[in-house]
Amino acid sequence: MNPTLLEVRDLNKAFGTVVTARNLNFSLQSGVITSIIGPNGAGKSTLINILTGLIAPDSGEILFHGRDITREPIARRVRWGLCRSFQVANVFGHLSLFENIAIPVLAVTRKATSFLRSTVRDKDVRREVESVLNRIGLLKQSHVRAGALSHGDQRLLEVGIALAAKPSMLFLDEPTAGMNPVERTRILQNIRELSDGGEVTFAIVEHDMDVVFSLSERVIVLHRGQIIGDGTPEQVKASPQVREVYLGEEVAE
């Protein structure tokens, strides 16, 4: 069995009377592409926000590489290898692709400075930036302004920005949202190749079931802050409760 990267113990979160996480217990294993799905309001994005430090849980524990990170700040989680993307592409549109990737590379290598243009002449930094751009298939556009990219390429760039921080686990929040079929195929292929490379483990929140069932090795289904399904795509699709609550099929008793 693959080693555990992240473990959640008795996690709870509520906003007033709305419960978004209720006694959640699960673990995520290294090298396993996991999708987290569920109907609107199930608590998917809230869960990612808790795990990556954007909001605090009411109770429970989060362990990453065996270390309790429940109350640790975002920057420290990133430094320890836990990163994320957001539903809306979050890139520096006025900077080139090279400069977008250089910023986290400089931070990771502790060479950050206010004079970005002078620091990117560093051979080690350039090599690392070009390596990341090559891994996401955007090396040939390295000097293009990020704001001029298509929506799909901006999402790829955002993945690259996260990869530049050298994560061991990367959460992607709806990575294919707003993409056309060609862009969707490209980013899915990219995620598979990066996962097969063994350097980063992906956990994905996604509404497109074709994406979920074609990409994932494991699927966790949330409903009203609770897990109602957890297994392979085939096991989840066969679950009567999941089909009734989320996949829209009435199940005969």
Superfamily (CATH H level) name: P-loop containing nucleotide triphosphate hydrolases
- Output mean pLDDT: 88
Order of helices and strands: EEEHEEHEHHHHEHEHEEHH
Number of strands: 10
Explain this structure to me?
- Helix content is 36%, strand content 24%.
- The protein is an alpha/beta fold and 253 residues long.
- The chain has one domain (4-245): P-loop containing nucleotide triphosphate hydrolases (Rossmann fold, 3-Layer(aba) Sandwich), CATH 3.40.50.
- Strands 6-7-8-3-9-10 form a 6-stranded mixed beta sheet, sandwiched between helices. A 4-stranded antiparallel beta sheet has the order 2-1-4-5, with helices on one face.
- A hairpin with a 2-residue loop joins strand 4 and strand 5 (67-68).
- Helix 6 (151-163) packs parallel to helix 7.
In short:
The protein is α/β, with parallel strands linked by helices.
How are the elements arranged and paired?
Blueprint: E1 4-15, E2 18-29, E3 34-37, H1 44-51, E4 59-64, E5 67-68, H2 74-79, E6 82-84, H3 97-108, H4 116-119, H5 123-135, H6 151-163, E7 169-173, H7 181-196, E8 201-205, H8 209-215, E9 218-223, E10 226-231, H9 233-238, H10 240-245
Parallel strand pairs: 3-8, 3-9, 6-7, 7-8
Antiparallel strand pairs: 1-2, 1-4, 4-5, 9-10
Helix pairs in contact: 3-5, 3-6, 6-7
What brief labels describe this structure?
4-stranded antiparallel β-sheet; 10 strands; 253 residues; alpha/beta; 10 helices; 36% helix; Rossmann fold
